[in-house]
Amino acid sequence: MSLFSYLSITWSLVVLAVTLLYGVWPHGFFKKLGIPGPKPWPFFGTFLSYIKGFHNFDTDCYKKYGKVWGIYDGRLPILMVLDPEMIKSIMVKDCYSVFTNRRMIGPFSDRLTVVKDEKWKRIRGSLSPFFTSGRLKEKYGDRFIENLKKRSPDDPVQIKDVFAPFSMDVVASASFSVDIDSINNPDEPFAAHFKNIFNFSFFSPLLLILTLFPSAAGLLGKVGFKTFSKSDLEFFYTSLKKLKEQHNNMNHVSIQKYLYLIYTDVKYNHNINTTSWVLHLLSGHCVDW
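and the corresponding structure tokens:
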């Protein structure tokens, strides 16, 4: 065997070992902390277990490991919590001071659910007054009930198909002061474009790439790779501009104040592009269509 062949085999083994080590290195995180969970696969973690369905996978883990367990989306460790007191601490008590950061997901990086530190606090502080219990309980609950009454008690009901339009109407009203009534008009343009933006497969090639290589999100954005349809984003961008123009002449103080907050927030943040602006305004309130 020549020296060149020997070096080629050696380097191939080194590259293979380093690659394998990269794929499994974070997978001992929960074991060191004594937190149980399903065994992860190299590179994929427990991501492939979602094939059986998110609910089924979570239910199986709850029955096997209890109220707290750890999973891995690719190389990223994720703590799953079902204990009410811990959830209250994470989402309410210590939310503003400790649990301010979430994972970064490419074009979603300006959403309320993923921005970090002071930026998260600023956006949350700006939006919170407009999602009060009073606004969320307006007229849409009555529409929702009336829509349910129209259905036959003997026919099965798809929970997502029932609650998604209701959530959409509430968010559209609280966020954009728009009454779209997607409960009774599921093909309304605003709702249709909203569906298109968030109607993606968790097993799409793009999501698999971002799961295995999270750092690729920035690179894909720089080369012009679009996660969402340009027409859908332009629809929301145009709609928001029209809403601002229409409401600027109204005397409704709360609407003017909210639109002013939107305007100033975007005006003085020169790093927000069209995609980020739309996703920033949706602010993590997307409906699981």
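(Above: one complete record from the training split.) The CA atoms of residues 26 and 75 lie 6 Å apart.
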